[in-house]
Amino acid sequence: SLVVLFGATAGAYGAKLGSDERELILLVWQVVDLHSKKVGTLHKSLVKADNLDLSDQCREVSGLTPEGLGKAEPLDRVLQQFSQLVSSDLKILGRSSYTLCSDGQLLIRQVLHPETSKKNFLLSDCFYSFYDLRKEFHTCYPSSAAVKDQTIKTMAEYLGLGTDEAEEDFGVWQVKTMVAIIFSMLSEGCNHVFTEPETVKYKYETGPWIKAYFGFFFFFFFFLCSSKSETVDSETVIRARGLPWQSSDQDIARFFKGLNIAKGGVALCLNSQGRRNGEALVRFVNSEQRDLALERHKHHMGSRYIEVYKATGEEFLKIAGGTSNEVAQFLSKENQVIIRMRGLPFTATQEDVLGFLGPECPVTGGKEGLLFVKYPDGRPTGDAFVLFSCEEYAQNALKKHKEILGKRYIELFRSTAAEVQQVVLNRYMSTPLIPTLPTPIIPVIPPPYTIATGSIRDCVRLRGLPYTAGIDDILEFMGDATGDIKPHGVHMVLNQQGRPSGDAFIQMKSADKAFMVAQKCHKKMMKDRYVEVFQCSGEEMNFVLMGGTLNRSGLSPPPCKLPCLSPPAYAAFQTAAVIPAEAAALYQPQALLPTTRTPQASAAAPPTVTYYPAQAAQLYMNYTAYYPSPPVSPTTVGYIAAPPGAVAAAATATHTPILPQPGALVRMQGLPYNTGMKEILSFFQGYQYAPDDYNGLIQLSDQARSVLQAPKEWVCL
């Protein structure tokens, strides 16, 4: 038997059904006995939605009103009535089992499953298997229109069924016509058989996506060659953006409830520090499911709307396609719940972790269910992954979030197989925390930067930038006005965590140029956001770059301008940063400029220098200034050409080594966060250190510290 089902929501109708997240307001159904070609009673039931504000299209097509819907039953009660009435009709027809049949897939996949998931009640088993009448019709009549172009009306017209839509109530005509179409397909000329129903997965299957592991070196080769040896259909992958940082793969699967995600098909994206960045790549079983997922663009997960975009199979492979032998063994136990632990003491052992979790949340396989994440040199990172055999044990473990182990509190989060692979991969591919200083050392930063401090309004402020926007995006946004930017005149404003704040300042060559840019670019789109552009003065810009705020209430001074604070001198902006020779290849040759030093500075003290690891040089070389953002451009290296003679001089010049002798650099770790210079100098009392101006003390900024992945520390020369 079939149960022919039709429904409507309070919003869009037809091909856009369910795309606007509107609730179900109507269900109409009728039982059809395929053997005897008899039908049961036709039932129509209104559904009371939480929001009774009907769209204009809904009012026009359905003829329903908020007043009529206000007297109806809620969805859970209507579904109970549906099950009872279907069972009663089946008994009358002498049947016991049935399968749903709907006009397309939208009603079941895009309306019923998402709505019941959000309202936290379960659908009966019958809603996890159904026949798509459009597909069955096209199979029976191959010369008919393509499946995506079919409607109830076009199928009826193809068969020459003379039904008048205006004579019946909305929903009743649709079900009666669908039943007539089914009987035509069952006629002697066609003898169509309903054999392969559509299925909806009950739950998302976790586990590693790829399993072929023969040690780390094979894995590394496999990772490099994965684009050739393994392929993922780009028509099955989407990127979800704007996810809550604590969301797990199960939360994402619930957001896409009703659509079939491939096994291990949710890959949470991580930033360079191994933390989730609010994005995920999701792989579906076929392109049809992917296209339905794209219709959930800007649907809500809790109070947040999620953006859904197309992605490529190559992007998915980079996130979820590689793993090491150690990870393969760890993930070999399928259908396990994975929990990530962060902040473990570096001395923590497997016994310590098992004791911390306790008997109420036993780990699968004991010690085999623990995976410690380590740096390439074998040092622990403080992260670990734990396997649990069931949801109950995992929930017990999550209750220990921020409990103490040793002298540190431990953070616990839900995790995924893809996240395990990413975190371990990032550690394998990372460089040591303090690498050996190579030779030769090449200066790559031009001489002192200057910030305007006058009241001339020759600057512009960009507000509302996408957090992913880089210098290339800003220069493209400026268009032809890029040529009017002063050298080193682009300044990104960072927050206290060293991340982009969404603001930037640009120094123009004149106030007229700044005015023209503000007029031309104000509220112009960058990616999917509009950006506000305001004209301002160099003094206002300088205040914000030094940590102050600029709003409608006026200027608030930065920390360095407050009388109670005594920040370090800004000599660091006037010194040459250096990078290893092998990292110089990352920069364009025209960016290599000669270092200029005044005779007085050279005679008084050796220059202050900052060492950057090769991996991070391009990203962070200008971000080592006083928080929240240095008053220099993090962009202009590589954009401003230097004379060829200067390049040659920089390449052939003999440089003074950073350290007077091997071993003259020491690193202090584990300092209290309120430690100052006086405490450090007192600690080293009796030892000879750098000159009296204390330029030998280099405090690592938040940005540099995030690159090195170490606690707050000082480096002493």
TrEMBL record:
Residues 337-417 form the RRM domain. GO terms for biological process: mRNA processing; RNA splicing. GO terms for cellular component: nucleus. One of its GO terms (molecular function) is RNA binding. Keywords: mRNA processing, mRNA splicing, Nucleus, Repeat, RNA-binding. PROSITE patterns: RRM. It is found in: Nucleus. Transmembrane segments: none annotated. It comes from the Eukaryota. The keyword RNA-binding applies. InterPro entries: ESRP, Nucleotide-bd_a/b_plait_sf, RBD_domain_sf, RNaseH-like_sf, RNaseH_sf, RRM_dom. Belongs to the ESRP family. This is Epithelial splicing regulatory protein 2. The gene is Esrp2.
